[in-house]
Design goal:
By secondary structure, the protein is of the alpha/beta class. It folds into 2 domains: 316 residues, L-arginine/glycine Amidinotransferase, Chain A (5-stranded Propeller); 77 residues, Pentein (Orthogonal Bundle), CATH 1.10.3930. Helix content is 31%, strand content 22%. The chain has a 5-stranded mixed beta sheet. A 4-stranded mixed beta sheet has the order 1-20-2-3. Strands 6-7-8 form a 3-stranded mixed beta sheet. Strand 9 and strand 10 form a beta hairpin. Helix 3 crosses helix 7 and helix 4 packs antiparallel against helix 9. The chain is globular. The mean pLDDT is 93. It catalyses: L-arginine + H2O = L-citrulline + NH4(+). Its EC number is 3.5.3.6. Belongs to the arginine deiminase family.
């Protein structure tokens, strides 16, 4: 019996979903990378090798690693799932009846593994050899995309997040990422690992316009003991937090959601780029973004789904109370102010805890890693010179599906 449960940020990690991108990275160019939310183009082979080092480190720690492309290919083997995905991702509204039909016919002949790579990695007009009578191709350049690549699928943390006994399938804030969510909807609905299993879908499973109620998993920290810490960032709105909180309370899966206001800024795109949980009483933090007086609210509720919101004096006291610890130990980003800013940008705070006091982080963040080490936190270093250019570290690149509580 599969057990889908994520009880904390720091308990023993048992199963995780990651994505090793290749095709999407080959489609990244200096002229399109910013639209695709990357700051730079990546060296494709090197990025792949770095990702392999990351997954090997996870396996060495006894973690079962699921690869998104494989799950997607196995989902596409189910005819109903394949029909739904092709009709959703290649919709008549997106391409017009004629061209959508031509693209779907062309794609449906591919083996499932190849099709999964195209759906995540993109397809340019010049890569589709068939002629179409539609007006659409005639109005595009050969290098324009029929299917835009999804390089941010690398950051599996955001598209869906498991919170205690269920999952939120997140409506994403940016158009460049919204199609990712449909891949996860299909996997959780049809893939044999998940279909018919006993877990709650809190939010985001229906196809609808979620308007301003967006939420991304990088902003959601399952800190344990029935509490969830959420950042309201460039990507996660108060409306999205309320939707998730209401569902958590309705299903009796959480007792409290603690919400922090973050600047709407690229450098702190998600809460986990400035704060992560490393041991029961220990967090890594970038204080320039999360000062002591940051706006903080506590959300509580019951199985009616009603929410009670109260503003809190201190986020630190609120977390201490939720975790029942006397004093939080906050390890700040290392080095002088210049080095700290650089290392935060290179995801020094975005570490993935595999068990209490043991974290995976980029080896390049020497000042911060040294501080972790002095505080008794063991850092398992991984290379990230290429992967880090996407602005995400080990936590961003992992979606825990099974993890012990505290």
């Amino acid at each position: 019996m599969s057990k889908f449960y994520v009880g904390s940020e720091i308990g023993q990690l048992r199963r995780v979903l990651v994505h090793r991108p290749r095709r999407a990275l080959t489609h990244l160019t200096p002229s399109n990378c910013h639209d695709l939310l990357f700051d730079d183009v990546l060296a494709v082979e090197r990025a792949g090798e770095e990702h392999d080092a990351f997954t090997q480190t996870l396996r060495d720690q006894g973690v079962e690693v699921l690869l998104l492309t494989n799950l997607l290919a196995e989902t596409l083997a189910i005819p109903e799932a394949k029909d739904w995905l092709l009709n959703t991702q290649i919709s008549n509204y997106r391409f017009g009846h004629t061209f959508a039909n031509d693209v779907r016919c062309y794609l449906s002949d591919f083996p499932n593994q190849e099709l999964a790579k195209i759906l995540t990695g993109g397809l340019a007009f010049c890569e589709m050899p068939i002629q179409s009578s539609s007006m659409v191709p005639a109005m595009h350049n050969p290098t324009d995309f029929i299917i835009e690549p999804l390089p941010n699928h690398l950051f599996t943390r955001d598209t869906s997040c498991w919170v205690y006994g269920g999952v939120s399938i997140n409506p994403m804030a940016k158009v460049a990422r919204q199609r990712e969510t449909n891949h996860l909807r299909a996997i959780y609905r049809w893939h044999p690992t998940f279909a018919g299993q006993d877990f709650v879908k809190y939010y985001g499973d229906e196809e609808r316009a979620y308007d301003r109620s967006t939420i991304e998993g990088g902003d959601v920290l399952v800190i344990g003991k029935g509490a969830v810490l959420v950042g309201m960032s460039e990507r996660t709105t108060p409306q999205g937090v309320e939707q998730l909180a209401s569902s958590l309370f309705k299903h009796g899966e959480a007792k409290q959601v603690i919400a922090l206001e973050l600047p709407k800024d690229r450098s702190c795109m998600h809460l986990d780029t400035v704060m992560t949980h490393m041991r029961e009483d220990t967090f890594s933090i970038y204080p320039n973004i999360i000062p002591d007086d940051v706006n903080c609210w506590s959300l509580t509720g019951d199985n009616s789904g009603t929410i009670k919101v109260s503003q809190q004096q201190s986020y630190i006291h609120t977390i201490e109370k939720a975790l029942q610890v006397d004093k939080l130990n906050l390890i700040t980003t290392g080095g002088d102010s210049f080095e700290a800013e650089r290392e935060q940008w290179n995801d020094a705070n975005n570490v993935l805890t595999v068990k209490p006091g043991v974290v995976i982080g980029y080896e390049r963040n020497t000042y911060t890693n040294e501080k972790y080490d002095k505080a008794g936190i063991e850092v398992l270093p991984i290379p990230g010179d290429e992967l880090g250019r996407g602005r995400g570290g080990a936590r961003c690149m992992s979606c825990p599906i099974e993890r012990d509580g505290i």
